[in-house]
Design brief:
The complex is a heterotrimer of chains A (about 120), B (about 290) and C (about 290).
Chain A: E1 2-7, E2 25-30, E3 36-40, H1 42-45, H2 51-60, E4 66-68, H3 74-82, E5 86-88, H4 95-103
Parallel strand pairs in A: 1-4, 4-5
Antiparallel strand pairs in A: 1-2, 2-3
Helix pairs in contact in A: 2-3
Chain B: E1 5-10, H1 18-31, E2 36-40, H2 48-52, E3 55-69, H3 79-83, E4 89-92, E5 95-98, H4 108-112, E6 118-133, E7 136-143, H5 151-160, E8 166-170, H6 177-183, E9 188-193, H7 197-213, E10 217-224, H8 230-238, E11 242-247, H9 250-258, H10 262-265, H11 269-285
Parallel strand pairs in B: 1-8, 1-9, 2-7, 2-8, 9-10, 10-11
Antiparallel strand pairs in B: 3-6, 4-5, 6-7
Chain C: E1 2-8, H1 15-25, E2 30-33, H2 41-45, E3 48-63, H3 73-77, E4 83-86, E5 92-95, H4 105-109, E6 115-130, E7 133-140, H5 147-164, E8 169-176, H6 180-186, E9 191-196, H7 200-215, E10 220-224, H8 231-243, E11 247-251, H9 256-264, H10 275-291
Parallel strand pairs in C: 1-8, 1-9, 2-7, 2-8, 9-10, 10-11
Antiparallel strand pairs in C: 3-6, 4-5, 6-7
The chains are: A alpha/beta (about 120), B alpha/beta (about 290), C alpha/beta (about 290).
Chain lengths: ~120, ~290, ~290
């Protein structure tokens, strides 16, 4: 299965970006093969509003089943849920660490948004 | 004065005495027998009613248009999401989603939809209340808490007003969208400042704004103290006239704290404001 | 790191003077001036600017007159009255940049592709150092939109500095009101300190700003400035606040030293003997007992 991690860089060594909507990249990892690639999200880094919504839309086109991030606001959460993508907030450290934790079942799936969105 | 005249009272910085000046000007005009209306455009924090104590008898909710999609007609083509600059409507996984509080009401999605699947519904952002305070017309707006977009409400407040011969508009603070919406069609703008570094710095920003909007304007210095020439020097340098100086007076601050118009209770204040009104009418009539 | 945002419903209640003083008391902290409409904190903290960048907010439309056929479609579709019409044969259309909402609908529907829709510079932001720590501030262009976005930018840049360099506090001077810029400055903060005055207007505005903080579920602290102007009302405001679950962090006396400090371009707390300075020290200590344990 493919999962996406909001990241400050473009590979497994990059740090997880706590901001879902305004992360620079998503690192998409195939948990079976370990294959990974970066999806640019820079367009939303500076968008006037709706960065969470647009980031969710962006990542929903990548065929991922789950997203690991720091925090996810209510609007992005609604979009991800509609796209059938599960959200795992509370990711920290490197992208590689976060993926390892996910594989070991140490991350908990969010049932609701964990922060108020709007502009943060 | 017979023609309709709109005078906006504004300031870059908040708390310089905008509401004090605006409400007392209204009372001064009424005392001179002028037909006058007070219009509070500070819809985020409307306070004029605390001083003019109007009887409010009309109340009108203000809506902004937001899209509603008929799922039976929608083919999830995604055009609506492409035109929307505000992320208020998107198509995801074959379904359309809307985010009403992101919508700016541009109507683009409705126009672009090839299936005519989108209609507009109103979403309430606040309320306009109207009434009278003695012989004075009164209008203000209240923005709902948690609501980001004040300009549509300010526009509604402005268009509810405008029947009086003289209209005094109490503008919101700042120099961005809300204040511009409030002052852009004013015949004359009166800028209230304090002779302090903060006050004059923000007055400078307000002057830049008015230059951009090409509105005639002048300054009133509030809380002036003897020997402090900061405001006079600043205005001379910027080539803008000072119509009046209102001296620092604890009694004015105390009247304000209790919700009373200084016009009625602080000796000498009424004459000063009446003088200011005369100057404003003279300047604005030119 | 704790982010403390100082706001007030109405302007002019002493927000900036308080933030400048807290900066002194906090020792090393990061400062952010989010009152981008009327930024004044730099007048007191005298920052030395190290970096300054353009802020590009949204896009705006502009008609290329040579391509315009005068059909008037743009005028028809614009909801914001931003398309001006100049009678002629054929009539010429133009965009009023002040009224333009940046929706791009005119550009989309122009059959001649005569309307450009391009990003515009809406302001500038600055990273600076002050004697009390790093500071981020900004200046919004006149008549520019997107103040909420610039506020977000200032906050996130300041936060970045605070996190990277391990500062304990981020002190934010917030904008007045309850609209877009205020929402952008309080969302996700650790504490909101509301500065009010004992006036009927202060009382009226306090309720709305507190409702806003409640809406975003942030702990709210109240400080009444110029308390002795109307002590009866000051106490009433405090009672009301307490019953709404707000923590009181102190009263500041009406003190001409506050204006005097501003005239000299220094924080009030730099005038150690001043009564207001003593009050503000008490406010800070009280605030810390709550913020540090939360």
């Amino acid at each position: 299965m493919k999962i996406a991690v909001s990241a400050c860089g473009q590979d497994l060594e990059s740090m997880v970006d706590a901001r879902f909507g305004r992360c620079g990249h998503f690192v998409v990892v195939d948990t079976e093969t370990g294959e990974c690639r970066a999806v640019n999200n820079g367009i939303n880094l500076n968008s006037a509003q709706g960065a969470g919504i647009q980031s969710a839309r962006n990542i929903s086109t990548q065929g991922v089943a789950a997203v690991i991030t720091g925090h996810c606001g209510p609007k992005a959460f609604r979009v991800l849920r509609a796209a059938g993508i599960k959200v795992y907030p509370g990711g920290g450290g490197s992208v590689g660490d976060a993926v390892a934790k996910f594989k070991q079942g140490l991350l908990e799936e969010a049932q609701t948004a964990d922060v108020e969105g709007h502009w943060s | 004065m017979t023609a309709q005249l709109i005078v906006a009272v504004a300031s870059g910085k908040g708390g310089t005495g905008k509401t004090t000046v605006a409400t007392n000007l209204v009372r001064a005009a009424a005392a001179m027998g002028q037909a006058v209306s007070y219009v509070d455009c500070d819809v985020e924090e409307p306070n004029g009613h605390l001083f003019l104590k109007p009887r409010l008898d009309r109340r009108q909710l203000v809506y902004v248009p937001v899209p509603e999609v008929d799922p039976a007609k929608c083919t999830a083509c995604g055009r609506c999401g492409e035109i929307c600059r505000f992320s208020a409507i998107i198509v995801i996984a074959g379904q359309v989603m809307t985010f009403a509080n992101m919508c700016h009401g541009c109507g683009g999605c409705m126009l672009v939809c090839p299936e005519q699947a989108i209609v507009e519904q109103g979403r309430v952002i606040g309320v306009v209340e109207e009434g009278r305070s003695g012989g004075t017309g009164f209008v203000h707006g209240r923005l709902n808490v948690g609501e980001a977009m004040s300009p549509p409400l300010i526009k509604a407040v402005r268009s509810a007003a405008g029947r009086g011969v003289l209209t005094i508009v109490d503008a919101p603070p700042g120099t961005s969208c809300p204040v511009i919406t409030a002052v852009r069609d004013a015949d004359f703008v009166l800028l209230v400042t304090e002779p302090t570094p903060f006050g004059l710095h923000d007055l400078g920003l307000a002057l830049d704004m008015l230059k951009e909007l090409a509105r005639p304007h002048a300054v009133v210095v509030n809380r002036a103290t003897p020997g402090n020439n900061l405001a006079r020097d600043f205005c001379r340098e910027r080539g803008v006239g000072i119509l009046a100086e209102i001296p620092e007076d604890r009694r004015v601050a105390e009247a304000y704290s209790r919700g009373e118009l200084a016009f009625a209770v602080v000796p000498g204040f009424g004459d000063r404001v009446s003088g200011l009104l005369t100057s404003v009418l003279k300047e604005a009539g030119r | 790191m704790k982010e403390i945002v100082v706001v007030s419903g109405k302007g002019g209640t002493g927000k900036t003077s308080l933030v400048a003083s807290l900066a002194v008391l906090a020792g090393e902290s990061v400062l952010a001036d989010c009152d981008v409409d009327a930024a004044d904190l730099h007048l007191v903290l005298q920052p030395e600017i190290q970096k300054s960048e353009d802020f590009t907010g949204g896009k705006k439309a502009a008609v290329s007159p040579d391509k315009c056929s005068g059909c008037g479609r743009c005028h028809e579709v614009c909801r914001f009255g931003a398309i001006t019409r100049d009678e002629g044969r054929p009539p010429a259309f133009a965009v009023d940049p002040v009224a333009c909402e940046g929706c791009g609908v005119c550009s989309h529907f122009c059959p001649e592709k005569a309307i450009r829709f391009e990003p515009v510079v809406d302001g500038r932001w600055f990273a600076a150092v002050t004697p009390y720590g790093p500071m981020v501030h900004a200046r919004l262009e006149i008549a520019a939109e997107n103040s909420g976005k610039l506020v977000s930018l200032v906050r996130s840049e300041a936060k970045k500095i605070a996190e990277q360099k391990g500062y304990r506090y981020l002190l934010v001077d917030g904008p007045p009101g309850i609209g877009c810029p205020v929402i952008a400055s309080v969302t996700g903060a650790d504490a909101v300190v509301v500065v009010t005055e004992p006036t009927v207007a202060g009382e009226n505005d306090l309720e709305r700003v507190v409702a806003l903080a409640g809406h975003f579920q942030i702990p709210v602290y109240l400080c009444v400035n110029k308390f002795d102007i109307n002590p009866g009302l000051g106490e009433a405001i405090e009672r009301r606040a307490r019953s709404a679950g707000i923590t009181l962090v102190g009263r500041i006396h009406y003190d001409l030293a506050v204006t005097a400090a501003q005239m000299r371009g220094v924080p009030v707390t730099a005038m150690e003997e001043a009564r207001a300075a003593k009050d503000i020290r008490a406010v800070w200590n009280k605030l810390l007992t709550h913020v540090d344990t939360n």
